[in-house]
């Protein structure tokens, strides 16, 4: 409290508080979170935090770091021009993602919400459950709903974690599709121009598959009932045969008890 009163919360102090808070925070800080750092009896004047952020961004022009705004708030990060040198500090092996994973992530980012079946229709190959789970574990994608078609397939979308990782404030900050098509790793396997048509086809296929499965189930049930009926008839026939054999058995025993007289030749 004394510290605040001595400096009377001038703009210079506010700027230094904001700078230190963003630097020390383990995750990006929003404007609301920064204002919450000041006590109720000595609040930061309205607009002072925004001004401090603007001043800090300008002061980074000639420095190796920059203050940017991402989906979750503001953070300091290393500038691209010096990244190659600073990256030598991180000795652990960085994760590398396959082309299939990047293509799947790109489709979810640009065409969300989208189902796994629609992604497979666009890419022309199956999308493994492990790949989807890996993106979910990375907290880059999440289930945002379910498509209103038979089977209710899950709809996937990106998260704030995805935007934060790639330094984006919102999905509007994604590069245009025209630029994405120029990336060798993604061209020419992603036909973005026909995604809506493919999505519709995927929905129709889902409905047709559901109807086919229903027909197969009905057919299997009918066949099962027919087999049961035939089995019952066979069991009845066997029972009749067994009964007939049982009725004949006493007569055979009686016949076996009869002893024919022996005739001797005299």
Blueprint (SSEs and pairs):
Elements: H1 2-7, H2 11-24, H3 31-35, H4 48-59, E1 65-70, E2 73-78, H5 80-86, H6 99-111, E3 114-115, H7 116-123, H8 129-137, E4 141-146, E5 154-158, H9 160-165, H10 177-180, H11 195-257
Antiparallel strand pairs: 1-2, 3-5, 4-5
Helix pairs in contact: 2-4, 7-11
Number of domains: 2
Shape: elongated
| Proportion of residues in extended strands | 5-15%
Largest sheet: 3 strands, antiparallel
User: Under the CATH scheme, which architecture of the largest domain would be assigned?
Assistant: Orthogonal Bundle
Unreliable spans: 1-7, 185-203, 240-266
The CATH fourth-level homologous superfamily of the largest domain:
Winged helix-like DNA-binding domain superfamily/Winged helix DNA-binding domain
- Using only CA atoms, what is the Rg? 38 Å
CATH topological fold name of the largest domain = Arc Repressor Mutant, subunit A
Order of helices and strands: HHHHEEHHEHHEEHHH
Q: Termini separation (Å)?
A: 147 Å
Number of strands: 5
């Amino acid at each position: 409290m004394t510290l605040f009163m001595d400096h009377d919360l001038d703009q210079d102090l506010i700027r230094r508080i904001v700078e230190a808070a963003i630097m020390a925070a383990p995750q990006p800080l929003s404007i609301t979170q920064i204002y919450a750092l000041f006590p109720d009896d000595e609040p930061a004047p309205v607009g002072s935090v925004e001004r401090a952020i603007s001043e800090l961004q300008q002061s980074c022009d000639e420095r190796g770091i920059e203050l940017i705004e991402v989906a979750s708030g503001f953070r300091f990060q290393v500038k691209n021009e010096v990244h190659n040198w600073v990256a030598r500090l991180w000795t652990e092996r960085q994760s590398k993602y396959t082309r299939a994973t990047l293509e799947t992530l790109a489709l979810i980012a640009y065409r969300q919400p989208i189902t796994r079946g629609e992604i497979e229709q666009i890419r022309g190959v199956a999308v493994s459950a492990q790949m989807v789970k890996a993106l979910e574990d990375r907290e880059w994608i999440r289930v945002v709903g379910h498509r209103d078609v038979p089977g209710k397939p899950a709809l996937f979308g990106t998260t704030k974690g995805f935007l934060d990782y790639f330094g984006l404030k919102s999905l509007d900050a994604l590069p245009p599709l025209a630029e994405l098509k120029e990336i060798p790793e993604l061209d020419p396997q992603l036909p973005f121009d026909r995604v809506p048509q493919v999505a519709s086809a995927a929905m129709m296929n889902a409905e047709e598959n559901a109807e086919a499965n229903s027909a197969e189930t009905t057919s299997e049930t009918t066949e099962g009932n027919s087999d049961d009926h035939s089995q019952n008839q066979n069991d009845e026939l066997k029972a009749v045969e067994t009964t007939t054999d049982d009725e004949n058995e006493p007569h055979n025993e009686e016949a076996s008890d009869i002893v024919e007289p022996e005739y001797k030749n005299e």
